[in-house]
Write a structure and sequence with these properties.
By secondary structure, the chain is an alpha/beta fold. The protein has a domain of 175 residues: P-loop containing nucleotide triphosphate hydrolases (Rossmann fold, 3-Layer(aba) Sandwich), CATH 3.40.50. The protein has eight helices and twelve strands. The strands form three sheets. Strands 6-9-10-3-11-12 form a six-stranded mixed β-sheet, with helices on both faces. Helix 5 packs parallel to helix 6. The chain is globular, with a radius of gyration of 19 Å. The two termini are 25 Å apart. The chain binds adenosine-5'-diphosphate and magnesium ion. The site of adenosine-5'-diphosphate has 11 residues, from strand 2 and helix 1.
């Protein structure tokens, strides 16, 4: 397999009862690339990403990561390959602060003499969290504030700081700006740019095409469970992408059935 690709997914199928959610979808992500994944409600975007994140098993299809056939049957497997998904609800604990959220499940501990219970190394966790957020261009006024009191953009930053701690190679963001106002959404776009600057690949799902055009290198369009088009962002327009989304147009090479 070509080594410019971090990930290749081939011929992915997924059915839920009577609904054929994905019908033979190919998808790929290059190293350091930001891919916009677009399509109407129900097109299969979240299903495809949940399969890559190990949250759902595909019925059929292959996934290749860094040139090798990957076996992803749980979120844990997916993380081992360097894939981190940031869900829309973010899965943050609102009553805990940023360091506790960033380190959740990976708490730094140290053992005191004769003390068998590991003690959380709070100061170290705060220091590292501050550094991770700084890499994302974010400075929280108070790291000890519970994340439920942070703004939407700041919470996204905390969720993404977690993926940096995990040394993610691919971060999947499913509608991260959906619930955000204009300036908060701009912050999230900045976070995506920072990930790209760090050489991390991103898949970004959103309905807002201007956001796609602001940060994505390439755009993949799904319609009714099929991939109907792909464009390099600088060689297309919002009108053309809209046509692909609603069905006025399909790329010839995806017209097989
Ligand atoms: N867990 C599920 N059970 C049943 N149907 C589902 C489930 N998840 C998704 N679907 C269906 O699969 C199709 C694709 O859904 P989804 O991947 O969420 O689309 P998108 O994210 O593009 O809006 C839709 O028809 C949806 O109703
Ligand atoms: Mg979705």
């Amino acid at each position: 397999m070509d080594n410019e690709f971090f990930l290749l997914a081939r011929d992915i199928h997924k059915r839920f009862g009577a609904v054929q959610a994905l019908r033979g979808v190919d998808f790929e992500v290059r190293y350091g690339e930001v891919v916009g994944l677009v399509g109407d409600n129900g097109a299969g975007k979240s299903t495809l990403m949940k399969i890559l994140a190990g949250a759902l098993p595909p019925d059929r299809g292959e996934i290749w990561i860094e040139g090798k056939r990957a076996n992803i049957s749980s979120p844990h497997d997916s993380r081992r390959y360097g894939i981190e998904m940031v869900y829309q609800d973010l899965a943050l604990a609102g009553n805990l602060d940023a360091p506790a959220n960033v380190f959740m499940g990976r708490e730094k501990t140290h053992r005191f003499w004769k003390l068998t219970t590991p003690v959380l190394h709070r100061r170290e966790m705060e220091k590292v969290t501050g550094e991770l957020l700084l890499r994302l261009g974010v400075q929280l006024p108070n790291l000890r504030q519970r994340v439920r009191y942070l703004s939407g953009g700041q919470r996204q930053a905390v969720a993404i700081a977690r993926t940096l701690l995990a040394q993610a190679k691919l971060v999947i963001m499913d509608e991260p700006t959906a619930a955000l106002g204009v300036s908060e959404a701009e912050r999230v776009l900045d976070l995506i740019r920072r990930l790209k600057e760090e050489g991390i690949s991103v898949v970004f799902i959103t309905h807002r095409l201007p956001h796609i055009f602001a940060v994505c290198d390439r755009i993949v369009v799904l319609r009714a469970g099929k991939r109907v088009g792909e464009r390099t962002t600088c060689e297309t327009t919002m009108e053309e992408i809209t046509q692909l989304i609603v069905g006025g147009k399909t790329d010839v090479k995806y017209e097989r059935e």
